Structure to design on (494 residues):
């Protein structure tokens, strides 16, 4: 029962910490959002059998579900590789106690398996099994069906942890996974090879045969053994220190920015900060997936005449990096904010560096989203207007409102499922930046026309670009009013 005791201690540490109560508003908001998502998944679970029955007349709903399990396995493993936080543990505190090393390692590996988030999709699987699988087959088959899904979750969690510890979280890993997805999609599209029938056969055997559960259990055991082997080779801190010393850290040569003076040097430092830290790199990689967000709306006839929503999507994907990094434009520097304030760097210069960096992010996203121009002339105008509005208005709103984000941000942690540094202010910052323009476009396009709405947003954006100096001055004055509060808050370590 030692592992249960360690899990209990870790749980007590989380809710006894000061950060838990400081972020109580965020935790409550996330709790309500979790309840909302749970209700949606539960509803989907009870209606999934009817949807699958309409999808195919020759296959039962469970056979269709089994055919999709291999895809769910690969998508879940990829998602965890990029977004699952590695479990950490303060080993020195326990190494003085009579606790075996294997017990501490087992705790590190088994702790993520007891997280309720892992079993969120059971809200879909269990109702589906009760309503559909029991009706088509038997209770025993339904139980094996649910257990096979649980074992798949365990395998994904353990495998993602091993792959992340062994191969890291770098840009090469990101491109390898993208290539795997592209290869699978092409094979399916050209009907060279389909994983659907392979998945249906494998998971069908697991579910229908009494000893079929031995297969997923064997894979779980294999993933557990791989993690144990990794820790047997890399348990002591000295091992990690040797690896860190032996590795050369390469950073992109950004010296060309130095020709732009102090502003260019600050931009170079901010870019290096983004490329060298886990949390900022994770956000950078995640943004690549959100660039495909437009495919959900631009291909759906339901949103064809919803101009407000289409402009929201255009503004989001053309300003994705700006939105993701801009709301913490000052918070990224929280760990060295005091040092920054003691340097002979004018606040105007510091904000100009952030301004030009966010402009560059907008340009990059706009160029990457130009393939959406094939969806028609309307989308071209939407993207152009959204790009202008982001540069002229939203950047200054972000720089102004970022001064209210007083929570210290830990850059060493990944961004995935990590809300450290996030408060209710983070959500309030995004609301006026994203919702107000959408409402303006929706209102003007409804009362007048789409052309009037787009010209209005264009004029506002161009006015902001032409008046960027007084707008920067406004942000400088706001920063000066808030800098002591920011410095005081950034010194608190949650």
């Amino acid at each position: 029962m030692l592992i249960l005791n360690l899990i209990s201690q870790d749980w007590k540490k989380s809710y006894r910490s000061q950060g838990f109560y400081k972020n109580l508003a965020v935790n409550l908001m996330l709790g309500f959002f979790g309840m909302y998502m749970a209700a949606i998944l539960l509803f989907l679970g009870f209606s999934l059998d009817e949807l699958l029955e309409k999808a195919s007349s020759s296959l039962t709903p469970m056979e269709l579900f089994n055919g999709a399990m291999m895809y769910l396995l690969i998508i879940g493993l990829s998602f965890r590789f990029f977004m699952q936080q590695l479990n950490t543990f303060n080993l020195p505190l326990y190494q003085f106690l009579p606790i075996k090393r294997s017990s501490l390692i087992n705790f590190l590996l088994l702790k993520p398996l007891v997280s309720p988030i892992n079993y969120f999709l059971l809200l879909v699987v269990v109702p589906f099994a009760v309503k559909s699988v029991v009706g088509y087959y038997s209770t025993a088959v339904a139980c094996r069906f649910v257990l096979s899904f649980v074992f798949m979750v365990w395998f994904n969690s353990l495998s993602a942890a091993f792959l992340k510890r062994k191969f890291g979280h770098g840009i090469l890993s990101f491109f390898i996974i993208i290539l795997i997805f592209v290869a699978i999609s092409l094979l399916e599209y050209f009907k060279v090879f389909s994983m659907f029938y392979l998945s249906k056969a494998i998971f069908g055997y697991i579910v229908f045969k009494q000893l079929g559960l031995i297969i997923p259990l064997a894979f779980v055991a294999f993933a557990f053994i791989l993690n144990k082997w990794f820790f047997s080779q890399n348990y002591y801190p000295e091992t990690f220190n040797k690896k860190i010393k032996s590795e050369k850290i390469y950073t992109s040569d950004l010296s060309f920015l130095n020709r732009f003076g102090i502003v260019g040097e600050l931009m170079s430092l901010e870019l290096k900060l983004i490329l060298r830290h886990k949390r900022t790199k994770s956000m950078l990689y995640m943004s690549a997936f959100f660039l495909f967000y437009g495919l959900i709306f631009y291909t759906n006839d339901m949103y064809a005449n919803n101009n407000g929503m289409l402009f929201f999507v255009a503004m989001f994907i053309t300003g994705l990096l700006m939105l993701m990094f801009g709301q913490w434009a000052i918070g990224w520097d929280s760990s060295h904010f005091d040092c920054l304030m003691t340097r002979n760097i004018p606040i105007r210069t510091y904000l100009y560096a952030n301004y030009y960096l966010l402009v560059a992010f907008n340009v990059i996203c706009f160029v990457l989203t130009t393939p959406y121009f094939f969806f028609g002339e309307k989308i071209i105008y939407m993207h152009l207007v959204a790009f202008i509005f982001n540069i002229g208005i939203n950047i200054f709103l972000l720089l102004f409102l970022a001064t209210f984000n007083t929570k210290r941000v830990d850059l060493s942690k990944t961004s995935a499922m990590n809300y450290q540094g996030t408060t209710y202010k983070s959500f309030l910052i995004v609301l006026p930046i994203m919702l107000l323009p959408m409402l303006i476009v929706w209102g003007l396009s409804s009362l007048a026309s789409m052309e009037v709405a787009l010209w209005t947003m264009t004029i506002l954006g161009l006015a902001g670009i032409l008046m960027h100096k007084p707008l920067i001055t406004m942000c400088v004055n706001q920063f000066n009013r808030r800098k002591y509060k920011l410095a005081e808050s950034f010194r608190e370590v949650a």
